[in-house]
């Protein structure tokens, strides 16, 4: 049996002996996304079970075991979810799981406090970003695209100098590099849930424009990624598009605005040979 250290928690070496490859993948997903519902964990790691019911049972069983080892914890805040049980809750890394990931991942960031309690707005946004990533993974499973790289906050932050020499930090919700039949696509993705004002979104667009003008990303990728705004409604999409078009300091071709429910169709269209592209 693995022995705890003086503080009663398992050492990194002991944790490694406890974990299957799927366990490791679950911890890595939670480290990347910060929070995931049980249903999202099912879609990421248990989707290929023979039946949905058997996958849900396995998911609940594994999450319960990892929780028993204090590697993950659940928020006592059910979020719905089909199947009940662990799939209805939101999960995150507990202290031991977070420490394990930081010590086993190259370039890992600073630790997160177990005492951190997310606001509902923060949590819903975080889960919405995870949904976008899961849609990309599911599209990859269909063979239409290949995900070359995914970067989540804070790894996807870009620190740059503006033309007047001031330092700014761009904080996308998600950066992805995708490959389809004939093209590579690069996207900065922003998930808007309709909680911010349009002027706030335009200020973020202006920050993207300033980052594009710095040339930093083009030096790395040779093109600038397309900035994809995912918005909740067609009315919101049209209003944001009109505001971007009216802002003289913005190049509208830098941005693509998509209703969130249409994102998968957007990616499918981009993967078609005649409509693919690189960036801006």
Automatic annotation (TrEMBL):
Superkingdom, natural source: Bacteria
UniProt cross-references to Pfam families, sorted A to Z: Replic_Relax (PF13814)
InterPro entries named among the record's database cross-references: Replic_Relax (IPR025855)
Protein name as annotated: Replication-relaxation
Naturally occurring in which organism (per UniProt): Subtercola lobariae
């Amino acid at each position: 049996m693995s022995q705890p250290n003086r503080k009663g928690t398992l050492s990194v070496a002991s944790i490694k002996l406890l974990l299957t490859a799927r366990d490791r993948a679950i911890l890595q997903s939670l480290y990347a996304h910060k929070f995931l519902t049980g249903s999202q964990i099912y879609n990421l790691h248990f989707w290929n079970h023979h039946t949905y019911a058997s996958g849900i049972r396995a998911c609940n069983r594994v999450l319960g075991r990892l929780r028993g080892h204090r590697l993950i914890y659940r928020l006592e805040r059910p979020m719905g979810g089909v199947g009940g049980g662990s799939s209805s809750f939101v999960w995150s890394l507990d202290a031991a799981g977070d420490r394990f990931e930081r010590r086993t991942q190259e370039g890992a960031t600073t630790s997160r406090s177990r005492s951190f309690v997310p606001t509902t707005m923060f949590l819903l946004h975080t889960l919405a970003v995870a949904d976008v990533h899961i849609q990309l993974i599911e599209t990859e499973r269909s063979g239409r695209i290949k995900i070359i790289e995914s970067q989540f906050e804070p790894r996807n932050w870009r620190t740059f100098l503006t033309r007047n020499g001031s330092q700014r930090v761009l904080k996308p919700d998600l950066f992805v590099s995708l490959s389809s039949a004939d093209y590579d696509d690069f996207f900065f993705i922003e998930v808007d849930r309709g909680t911010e004002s349009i002027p706030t979104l335009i200020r973020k667009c202006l920050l993207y424009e300033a980052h594009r003008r710095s040339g930093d990303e083009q030096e790395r990728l040779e093109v600038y990624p397309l900035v994809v705004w995912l918005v909740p409604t067609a009315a919101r999409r049209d209003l944001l598009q009109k505001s971007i078009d009216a802002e003289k300091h913005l190049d509208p071709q830098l941005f693509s605005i998509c209703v969130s429910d249409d994102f998968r169709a957007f990616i499918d269209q981009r993967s078609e040979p005649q409509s693919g592209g690189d960036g801006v």
